[in-house]
């Protein structure tokens, strides 16, 4: 029998994109599946959309925070409610490939030493048109080395083998937000291997409210928090190459106007079509 996979979906003001996101989860070929959705006190019609979607679907559980807690705390709450052996992360403005969960669950079953598996990403615009891609390394050593200088996994693509992690593991640390993905990957790597599938499993939506676009300098300094925590508390040791690249990145962040930072990042990462 297949293990239960819990898709954990934090939602905040996502009414425009929620129908596509929810349909992509419902259309997954994998079963058994449960969907844990927590609305983080949205100001738009998100909660109404979620409540309507959940009707007649016992595998879907919807709740709402009384106050806005942020994505990290909301994700932690969702994980605490989840019953699954595996935890699949998802963002409310993105779309899953129909085979995503099936491929990742199969990989985790055949690689029990792997704590997190991700995948490759298409980048889409507001209308769902593909405008680029994100390509990530496949193997643990490459991912771990890359982690110090740039994100080597797309957080909403990942599925986590929670059996390898302590019961009190902090899946999302608000101290690093909006770079909580770095904290997750640094911490989880102490308990198992990281991997990415070669398959494009996810459609990542790029729009005007992505914080990596609107506040790249703020995001960068929060990434530095996660890096320092990894050096001081996670026994992480970066390569000389990674140290040199991060120092160069820091100089660029200090010197460049904010509006030029993300376009430069996209160019250097080869994120075009």
Write up what this structure looks like.
By secondary structure, this protein is α/β, with parallel strands linked by helices. It has a single domain, classed as Spore Coat Polysaccharide Biosynthesis Protein SpsA, Chain A, CATH 3.90.550.10. It contains ten helices and nine strands. Strands 1, 2, 3, 4, 5, 6, 7, 8 and 9 form a nine-stranded mixed β-sheet that branches. A hairpin with a 5-residue loop joins strand 6 and strand 7. The protein starts with a strand and ends with a helix.
A few lines on this structure:
By secondary structure, this protein is of the alpha/beta class. Helices cover 39% and strands 21% of the residues. Strands 1, 2, 3, 4, 5, 6, 7, 8 and 9 form a nine-stranded mixed β-sheet that branches.
Q: What is the element layout, followed by pairings?
A:
Blueprint: E1 5-11, H1 18-26, E2 33-39, H2 46-54, E3 60-64, H3 71-81, E4 86-89, E5 95-96, H4 100-110, E6 114-124, E7 130-134, H5 140-147, E8 159-161, H6 180-188, E9 193-205, H7 211-214, H8 216-233, H9 240-255, H10 258-269
Parallel strand pairs: 1-2, 1-4, 2-3, 6-9
Antiparallel strand pairs: 4-8, 5-9, 6-7, 6-8
Helix pairs in contact: 6-8
Fill in the keyword field for this structure.
globular, alpha/beta, 10 helices, 273 residues, Spore Coat Polysaccharide Biosynthesis Protein SpsA, Chain A
């Amino acid at each position: 029998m297949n293990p239960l996979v819990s898709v954990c979906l934090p939602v905040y003001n996502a009414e425009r994109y929620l129908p596509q996101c929810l349909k992509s989860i419902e259309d997954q070929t994998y079963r058994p599946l449960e969907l844990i959705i927590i609305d983080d006190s949205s100001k738009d019609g998100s909660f109404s959309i979620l409540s309507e979607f959940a009707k007649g679907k016992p595998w879907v559980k919807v709740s709402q925070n009384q106050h806005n807690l942020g994505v990290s705390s909301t994700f932690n709450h969702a994980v605490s409610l989840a019953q699954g052996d595996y935890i699949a992360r998802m963002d409310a403005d993105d779309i899953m490939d129909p085979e995503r969960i099936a491929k990742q669950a199969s990989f985790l079953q055949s690689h029990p030493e792997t704590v997190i598996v991700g995948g490759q990403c298409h980048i889409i615009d507001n209308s769902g048109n593909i405008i680029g891609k994100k390509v990530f390394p496949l193997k643990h050593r490459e991912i771990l080395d890359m982690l110090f200088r740039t994100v080597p996994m797309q957080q909403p693509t990942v599925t986590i083998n929670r059996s390898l992690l302590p019961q009190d593991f902090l899946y999302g640390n608000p101290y690093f937000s909006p770079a909580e993905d770095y904290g997750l990957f640094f911490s989880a790597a102490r308990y198992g291997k990281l991997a990415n599938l070669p398959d494009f499993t996810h459609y990542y939506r790029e729009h005007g409210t992505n914080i990596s676009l609107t506040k790249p300098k703020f995001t960068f300094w929060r990434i530095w928090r996660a890096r320092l925590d990894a050096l001081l508390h996670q026994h992480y040791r970066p390569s000389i190459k990674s140290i040199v690249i991060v120092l160069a990145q820091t100089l660029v962040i200090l010197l460049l106007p904010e509006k030029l930072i993300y376009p430069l990042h996209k160019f250097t990462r080869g994120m075009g079509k």
